[in-house]
Sequence to fold (164 residues):
Amino acid sequence: MKTKIVKFIGFSGSGKTTLIEKIVKMLSDDGVRVATVKHDVHGLEIDKEGKDSYKYSEAGAKVSVVSSPEMTVYKIHEKLSLNTILSKIDNIDIIIIEGYSNDEGYPCICVARKDTGKGFKNDFIGYDIVVSDYSEEELKKIGFSGKSFGFDDINEIIGYIMSV
Fold:
């Protein structure tokens, strides 16, 4: 099976992470191997000051690897393109991307929440489906005529992901 890739975009607080978490849980419970890629525009820190890996990074290491019996963290000290990141992931059935709203070429699910004022990022350009608390009538009124799901339609969203 070729690895499926799907991207979730939306404003912070719209419900992307909660939705992705539910999808990952259901897919994983069904034996699907899932990877997630999260774009963090606020900066990322995974080392703790005083730890050996932190000291190696501070000393100038371009790659830092920390491995334990439970996990391995491979940290590259440079910005990588989304395609480069994806090329390093193997032996996975589905990759779910959160963010990278400017990167095109992957099926895109827009998450929006009317109740919190976390609406849409643009004029529905590049959205394959919408997950929101907007009614179909409200979506049509604001210009979206594609397929939409509610936040509780997890099985239908997974069906869409499996079909791409």
Residues 16-29 form the longest helix (14 residues). Residues 47 and 54 are 5 Å apart (CA to CA). Helices lie at 16-29, 52-59, 82-87, 136-141, 154-163.
